C-alpha cells in the first residue's frame, strides 16, 4: 500500500443472489458479509448488466455494456478487442498496482487473461506482490455456480421452511433446489471471512477497500438467464477503512437507489487514482450522491446457448420495465444446461401433466410485448401492469428511458449474430447500423397489431438487412393475421429472393406455421444443415422447434444428423427436437450430454469449451 492509495479486495460469488442476512433473509448464515455491510455501504437495488455470466463478466472487465460491442452480449461468444479498449486491470497496473485474479475469467471477448493480470491463476494472491506495492486482488467463488443444485448434499435449511415464489409450483425438486443452495451461500461467506482474516493477519485490513458482489442472480428456475429481479439482482457491499470512508456513504448506510454493476470498473479506476476512460459507460460509485427517484439500472439478454430471445429491461428503485423483442417465443424454451437442475425438470413435468395454475403455467407460453411490475407490492413479478391506465406515466417514463439507453449505447442486439455491422466500431460506422430506423420497427413487433402491417411491409423493402429482418419478425409475430391480403405473396417473394438468411427464416417460419407451406419448411430445414454458419442454423432450429414435431418429422434425418455433431449449441438444439419428433422427450431427457460431446469433438478435432 502507498500512503494515498488503498488496496482493493474484490470478491465475486458466482450466480449468487443476495440471499444474505444483511439483505433480510433469515435462513442465510452469512456473518462475515453481514459484518462487512454493517461497517460499509450496502446497495439494496444493485443489478448486473446481464443475467448470465459471460456477457456480465465482459461488462465487469471493461465497463462497457455487452450489447454495445457485439457479440459480447451473446452467451457465449468471443468478441474482438479493439486496440483502444483497455480493461481495468491494465489501467490499474499502469498506475502501479499489483493485480491478481483468482481465477475465473469467462470474459466473452478475445482478451488474453495472462496478459492483463500480473497473476491469473488458482494461486493468485496479493501476498505475491512486491513489497510496498498497492494491490487489487479479485477472488471468484465458483461453488455457488448454478451447477451446485445439480446434485444434493445434506440440507442445512429445511426445504419446508422455504417461501416459494408464486410463479413456481410446490414440488420437492423445486424446494430442494432452494434449500440446497443455502449450504453454498454459507460456504461462500466463510470463504470471504477467511480472506478478511488474511488481510488482518497481514496488517492490511485498515488499508484495503473491500467489495463484494456477484456476476448475476440465480440459480433457481426463472432466475439466471431471465431479466426479472431474481436473474439480475446481486449483492453489492463496499466497505472502506476510515482513511477512505469519506468516498462512500456513512458506514451502515443502505442505498435504495438502483445501480448497475457496470459502475464497478470506473469505481476501481477512480479509487486507484486514475482517469476513467471515456468508453466506460457507468459512473463511479465513489463520491456519488444516489438519487432514489432518478437512478436507473439497465439489463439485457440475447442468445442463451442455443436459444435466441432478445429482452431489454430497466429498473428504478421500485419498478421493473421489460420489453420482449421475441414475444412469439415462450419464456420456457428448453435450455439444455439449465434443465440439468431438478427445479426445471419438475416445473416442466407439472406443466405437461396439467397441474399448474395460470400464474405458474405462464412460463410455458408466449410473452407479452411489454411487462411492468411494482416490485415493492409484487416482489415475485407476476402481475403485469403494462397497459394499466393507473401506471401509464410509469410505463411511459421507463419505456422512454429504455429506448434512450438503447440508442445511447448503440445496442448491437438487434443485429443477427455475425452480421458485418456487429461490434463497437463497426456498428458506429456511418450508415452501417441505422438503429433508430430499426428500433421503430422492432418496437412495433411487440404490439402485435395488424395495423402495423404497412410498417412491416415497408421494412421488407428497406435497403438495410436488419430493418428487413425486423419487418419479417413483425409478420411472424402477427401469426395468421399477418398473412392477409397480399402479405403471403410478399413473404414468399422474400423467402425466394432476399439474400439475407436472417430475413428469409422468419418469413419462412410464418408461411410454414400459419399457411402449411411445404416449400417454406424445406427452406428452414436447409438452413438447419451444416452448410450454414451456426448462427443461421440456431435461428432455423428455433423456427423448426416452434413448428412442432409433427410438422418437422419429414426432415428427421436433418435433425438427427445435427444431433450427432460435436457442436454444443446446434447439437443440443437438434437433440431436443429429435426427442420431440420421436415422441421420447421427458423433462429429464439427456439433451445436454457433455461426455458424448467431448468424445465426438475429440474424434473430429473440434474445439469445445467446458461446461459452465
Description:
The protein is α/β, with parallel strands linked by helices and 612 residues long. 37% of the residues lie in helices and 11% in strands. It has helices at residues 31-38, 53-62, 88-94, 113-116, 172-201, 229-232, 264-271, 342-352, 358-361, 392-408, 435-445, 453-460, 465-478, 487-497, 501-515, 518-527, 534-547, 549-552, 556-563, 568-582, 594-604, and strands at residues 7-13, 41-47, 98-102, 119-120, 135-141, 208-214, 233-234, 236-239, 254-260, 297-301, 311-315, 319-324, 370-374. The strands form two sheets. Strands 1, 2, 3, 4, 5, 6, 7, 8 and 9 form a nine-stranded mixed β-sheet that branches. A four-stranded antiparallel β-sheet has the order 10-11-12-13, covered by helices on one side. Strand 11 (311-315) and strand 12 form a beta hairpin. The two termini are 36 Å apart. The relative contact order is 0.11. The mean pLDDT is 96.
Q: Nearest-angstrom radius of gyration?
A: 24 Å
Task: Outline the biggest β-sheet.
Answer: 9 strands, mixed
- The count of strands amounts to 13
CA-CA gap between termini: 36 Å
As a percent range, the share of helical residues equals: 25-40%
Assembly type of the shown chains? Answer: single chain
Could you list the spans in which at least 5 consecutive residues all have pLDDT below 50?
Answer: none
Proportion of residues in extended strands: 5-15%
Give the averaged pLDDT, no decimals.
96
Structural class: alpha/beta
Q: What's the shape?
A: globular
Q: Helical stretch count?
A: 21
Amino acid at each position: 500500500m502507498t500512503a494515498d492509495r488503498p488496496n482493493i479486495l474484490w470478491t465475486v460469488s458466482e450466480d449468487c443472489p443476495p440471499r444474505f442476512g444483511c439483505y433480510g433473509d433469515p435462513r442465510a448464515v452469512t456473518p462475515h458479509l453481514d459484518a462487512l455491510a454493517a461497517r460499509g455501504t450496502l446497495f439494496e437495488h444493485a443489478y448486473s448488466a446481464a443475467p448470465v455470466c459471460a456477457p456480465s463478466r465482459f461488462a465487469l472487465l471493461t465497463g462497457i455494456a455487452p450489447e454495445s460491442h457485439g457479440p459480447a452480449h451473446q452467451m457465449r461468444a468471443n468478441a474482438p478487442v479493439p486496440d483502444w479498449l483497455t480493461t481495468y486491470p491494465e489501467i490499474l497496473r499502469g498506475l502501479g498496482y499489483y493485480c491478481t485474479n483468482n481465477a475465473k475469467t469467462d470474459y466473452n471477448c478475445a482478451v488474453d487473461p495472462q496478459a492483463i493480470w500480473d497473476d491469473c491463476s488458482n494461486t493468485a494472491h496479493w501476498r505475491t506482490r512486491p513489497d510496498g506495492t498497492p494491490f487489487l486482488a479479485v477472488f471468484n467463488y465458483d461453488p455457488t455456480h448454478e451447477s451446485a443444485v445439480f446434485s444434493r448434499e445434506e440440507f442445512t435449511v429445511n426445504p419446508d421452511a422455504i417461501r416459494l415464489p408464486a410463479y413456481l409450483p410446490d414440488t420437492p425438486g423445486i424446494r430442494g433446489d432452494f434449500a440446497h443452495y443455502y449450504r453454498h451461500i454459507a460456504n461462500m461467506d466463510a470463504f470471504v471471512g477467511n480472506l478478511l482474516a488474511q488481510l488482518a493477519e497481514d496488517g492490511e485490513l485498515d488499508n484495503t477497500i473491500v467489495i463484494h458482489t456477484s456476476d448475476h442472480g440465480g440459480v433457481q428456475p426463472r432466475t439466471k438467464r431471465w431479466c426479472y429481479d431474481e436473474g439480475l439482482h446481486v449483492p453489492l457491499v463496499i466497505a472502506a477503512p476510515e482513511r477512505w470512508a469519506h468516498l462512500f456513504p456513512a458506514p451502515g448506510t443502505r442505498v435504495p437507489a438502483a445501480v448497475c454493476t457496470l459502475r464497478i470498473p470506473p469505481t476501481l479506476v477512480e479509487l486507484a487514482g486514475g482517469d476513467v476512460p471515456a468508453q466506460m459507460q457507468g459512473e463511479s460509485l465513489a463520491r456519488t450522491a444516489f438519487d432514489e427517484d432518478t437512478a436507473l439500472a439497465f439489463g439485457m439478454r440475447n442468445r442463451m446457448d442455443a436459444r435466441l430471445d432478445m429482452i431489454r429491461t430497466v429498473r428504478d428503485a421500485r419498478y421493473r420495465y421489460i420489453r420482449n423483442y421475441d414475444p412469439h417465443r415462450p419464456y420456457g424454451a428448453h435450455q439444455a444446461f439449465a434443465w440439468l437442475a431438478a427445479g426445471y425438470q419438475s416445473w416442466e413435468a407439472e406443466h405437461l401433466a396439467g397441474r399448474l395454475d395460470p400464474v405458474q403455467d405462464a412460463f410455458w407460453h408466449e410473452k407479452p410485448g411489454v411487462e411492468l411490475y411494482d416490485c415493492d407490492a409484487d416482489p415475485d413479478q407476476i402481475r403485469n401492469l403494462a397497459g394499466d391506465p393507473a401506471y401509464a406515466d410509469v410505463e411511459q417514463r421507463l419505456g422512454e428511458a429504455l429506448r434512450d439507453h438503447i440508442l445511447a449505447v448503440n445496442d448491437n442486439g438487434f443485429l443477427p449474430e455475425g452480421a458485418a455491422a456487429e461490434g463497437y466500431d463497426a456498428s458506429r460506422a456511418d450508415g452501417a447500423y441505422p438503429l433508430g430506423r430499426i428500433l421503430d420497427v422492432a418496437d412495433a413487433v411487440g404490439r402485435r397489431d395488424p395495423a402495423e402491417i404497412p410498417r412491416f411491409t415497408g421494412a421488407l423493402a428497406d435497403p438495410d438487412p436488419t430493418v428487413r429482418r425486423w419487418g419479417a419478425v413483425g409478420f411472424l409475430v402477427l401469426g395468421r393475421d399477418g398473412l392477409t391480403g397480399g402479405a403471403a405473396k410478399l413473404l414468399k417473394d422474400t423467402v425466394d429472393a432476399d439474400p439475407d438468411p436472417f430475413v428469409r427464416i422468419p418469413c419462412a417460419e410464418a408461411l410454414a406455421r400459419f399457411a402449411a407451406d411445404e416449400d417454406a419448411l424445406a427452406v428452414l430445414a436447409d438452413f438447419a444443415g451444416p452448410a450454414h454458419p451456426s448462427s443461421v442454423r440456431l435461428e432455423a432450429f428455433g423456427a423448426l422447434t416452434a413448428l412442432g414435431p409433427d410438422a418437422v418429422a419429414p426432415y428427421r434425418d436433418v435433425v438427427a444428423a445435427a444431433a450427432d455433431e460435436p457442436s454444443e449449441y446446434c447439437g443440443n438444439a437438434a437433440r431436443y427436437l429429435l426427442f420431440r419428433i420421436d415422441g421420447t422427450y421427458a423433462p429429464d431427457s439427456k439433451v445436454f450430454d457433455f461426455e458424448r460431446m467431448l468424445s465426438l469433438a475429440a474424434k473430429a478435432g473440434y474445439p469445445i469449451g467446458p461446461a459452465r
